[in-house]
Every structure is written in C-alpha cells, then in structure tokens.
Amino acid sequence: MALGKRIDIHVHLSQYWPDLERNSYRRGLQFTVPSLLRELDAQSIGFAVLLQLYSNPTPEEVLREGEEMFTKSGGRLLKTVTVDPTRGAEAVQHTLDLWAKARDLVAIKLYPGYREFYPHDSRLEPVYEFAHRRRVPVMIHQGDTLDPDGRVKYARPLEVDEVAVRYRDVRFVLCHLGNPWVEELAEVVYKNSNVYTDTSGLLANPAVPYFREMFGRAQRRLTNAIAAIGDARRVLYGSDWPLESIETAVTLVQGLDLPEEDRERILGGNARELLRLDAPG
Ligand SMILES: [Zn+2]
C-alpha cells in the first residue's frame, strides 16, 4: 500500500502519560501504535511526528522510546527529542551529548508553560546551536496547558520572537496556533520567516454542548491567522492525538475556505519541506 502524502506534525504516544485516561475524552481509545496508524491511514497520512513528553524521566529513555515507536510503526512515527533546561546546564549538556549520537531525529520539542522557563532562557543556547548544526526544527508548546498547574506566561508567542531573531538559521514551530494568543502568534510568524505554526489541539470533546460553535470559531481563527501572515506555507496540520481524533483534526483544515492547493500544503506539503522528507539521503 502506498503511503499517503500527508503528515501529522503533532502526535503523542508514550507510557509516560499516566493520567491520560483522566485527561482524554476518548474513552476506550487504544493508546497503541496500530490504533494510531489506523487513524492516520483513514486520512491518507503517511507519517506523523511523535513528540516526546516532558514527563519522560531521562534523556536515554526519550531516545529509547522514540526508537521503539519508530520501529514498531515501520518508520512512520518520526523521532523527536525533548529537554527541560530547568534541570540545569549540566543535564542539558549530557542530553545534547546523547542526541549527538542519535540518528534520524526530525525535531526538538520544548514545553515552556508546563515547565517554568522562557524560550529565550540562556540555558537553551546549546540546544538552539544543536538545532542549527543538525538542521532540525524546534517545536515549542504554546498557550493553554492541559495541566492547570502550568504557568502560561512562559508559553506566549511573543516570548519566542527574541530567539527567532537571534537564531535566524533555526526554524521554530509554535504549536496550537498560540491559543489563546492567536493574533500575537500571527504577528510573530508574519514577522519572522523562520517561524511556523501548527493547527493541533484546537478542539475539545465533540460531545460538549457548543462543539459546533467551537469548530467554526477554530476555523475562523485559523483563516484569520493565515490572512494576517499572508501565506499558508508556514502553517502545518497537526492533531495532538490522542487528545483529538485525526479525523476531526483533518476535517478542520479541509473545511477552510482556501484554495485546494493551500489546504493540501497545510496537510502535508509544508511539513515535507520543513522536515526535508523528500531530500535525498
Ligand atoms: Zn501536544
């Protein structure tokens, strides 16, 4: 079977999400590779970027789990890493030494908001230098945190502007359209040609009373952000599976009032370019 051209830039699958049953509305959903691949296949999505969680206990385990999922999925769940700078400069350096030996990493994920640091924290400088050397994008959690104990002041798009300017050769992906700071996000993406955004996690449980309105609002916000940026090339489809179903997340993008070509770019073409999936070698 030929793999679909589309790419989901934002999924999670990890044993280090112990309260998933409590957080997810999708009762009975199997949190497994085959279950995720089935949902991807149904939407013609060939690959998904599997974002490691900040709750994973060690950098060794981050790499091991990523490798396991990559192998189990036949290479369709792409490998990423994460680092928490609040663990200190030495821990960051140890993590980077491990990454230096890792193959086929497609992205680095950071979790400001869930952890107390700004993207312009000086302890992250070697991480951005690594991203530059290895040409991997840095994906940054933005806006609302699932955990009510998160500190959202660390997760505002405006806080990324500083590093976007300082590291022009590093590409940044600001997740969740910066929700709720969508206008702020649009400005940071518009201004900085090395900044992208993803459409993940914008919807809640379809059973909530105002889901239809919520869905329409998410589409309007997405359309407004693209209008403000003036370009659909730096907008990437993502679901945040298992928190959102792949089908619902794809439907959100497919229903946008944009040229068909741009919708498909968002659903995969942009990510293929960003991750250089079509590049030889
Ligand atoms: Zn996520």
Description:
This protein has 281 residues and is an alpha/beta fold. Helices cover 41% and strands 13% of the residues. It is built from ten helices and eight strands. It has an eight-stranded parallel sheet. Strand 2 (45-50), helix 3 (59-72) and strand 3 form a beta-alpha-beta unit. The two termini are 23 Å apart. The model has no long low-confidence stretch (mean pLDDT 95). The structure holds zinc ion. Zinc ion (ZN) is lined by residues 10, 12, 51, 200-201, 240.
Ligands? zinc ion
Counting DSSP H or I runs of 4 or more residues, the number of helices is 10
Oligomer kind: single chain
The name of the CATH superfamily reads Metal-dependent hydrolases
Record the strand order, biggest sheet: 1-2-3-4-5-6-7-8
Q: In total, how many domains does the architecture comprise?
A: 1
Profile the largest sheet: 8 strands, parallel
CA gyration radius, whole angstroms: 17 Å
Q: What is the CATH topology classification name?
A: TIM Barrel
Average pLDDT for all residues: 95
Helix content: 40-55%
Instruction: Name the poorly predicted regions.
Output: none
Structural class: alpha/beta
Reading the helices and strands in chain order gives EHHEHEHEHEHEHEHEHH
- Beta strand count: 8
The CATH first-level class comes to: Alpha Beta
CATH architecture: Alpha-Beta Barrel
Note the gap between the termini.
23 Å
Topology of helices and strands:
Elements: E1 6-11, H1 20-23, H2 33-42, E2 45-50, H3 59-72, E3 77-82, H4 89-101, E4 105-110, H5 125-134, E5 138-140, H6 158-166, E6 172-174, H7 182-191, E7 195-198, H8 211-229, E8 235-236, H9 246-254, H10 260-275
Parallel strand pairs: 1-2, 2-3, 3-4, 4-5, 5-6, 6-7, 7-8
Helix pairs in contact: 7-8
Bound molecules: zinc ion (ZN).
Zinc ion binds at residues 10, 12, 51, 200-201, 240.
